[in-house]
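ingest -> validate -> predict -> emit
validate: passed (alphabet ok, no gaps, 278 aa)
predict: started
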Amino acid sequence: MQGSVGASVIIRVRDEQQSLERCLTLLGAQRGLSGGVEVIVVDSGSEDQSVAVAERHDARVAFVPTHRFTFGGALNQGAQLARHDVLVSLSAHAFPRDDGWLARLVGAVSDPDVACACGDVFGPDGDRLTTPVAQDAALARRRPEWGFSNAAGAVRAELWRRRPFRADLPGCEDKEWALHWLDQGYRCVVDPRLVIDHDHTHDSLRGIYARARREAIASAGFLPGAPDAGAGRLAREWWSDTRWYESAARARLSHRRAARLLGAHAGRRAGPPRPAPT
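emit:
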């Protein structure tokens, strides 16, 4: 990427008018990109005022029928309309913390060896990040649940054109896409300076379970080898994998963590994803 660089920000939305309003307002306040910013909202059947909010903020709006929605498919649809060299995916309920976030995110993929970038406060082993991590294929395979996220991440448009996100996966299209390019020798930058406010702490236990199940099913569609779906693995994870918690005791008593582990267990038992709807 040479000369002025801009960003095409793609936001998937369905019935999130209040969050989308805040998200677009914060995007409009971003500074430091000489090539400009365009916003593309992909709506999957909103019945509230989400589309009107997008139009009021001069975003381009694309539509996908609810029954045909997949996370990767919606991003691909938005990316087809994009005109910049960097594609940024952003959840409608994800909020930049300052007006330089987008420029920093775009700058993170300026290195030709970097395929994608995102933020995180924790490293792959649960340690708190203070400096960027350049994830490679070996690290991605050791910790496949950690790394690139389409909740707020950037990819090089040239690489997306060569290989779009998989539309047949029910989730984890971001991890799958990144792993493909990491296997080709690229890197994914995970930087604490790129963290946004993206809060799922108020999700219901049912929602946490469903998300974990969906992501486990998706992972079975691209990670090699048959996953261990036995109860023994579930027990080992509950007892031993206490990353991101202040203490092992707190982790083992967390209802939210239990819902996530049970959902992942159910997803592994369900096996690879079925074909996407047509």
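The chain has two domains: 7-194, 205-270.
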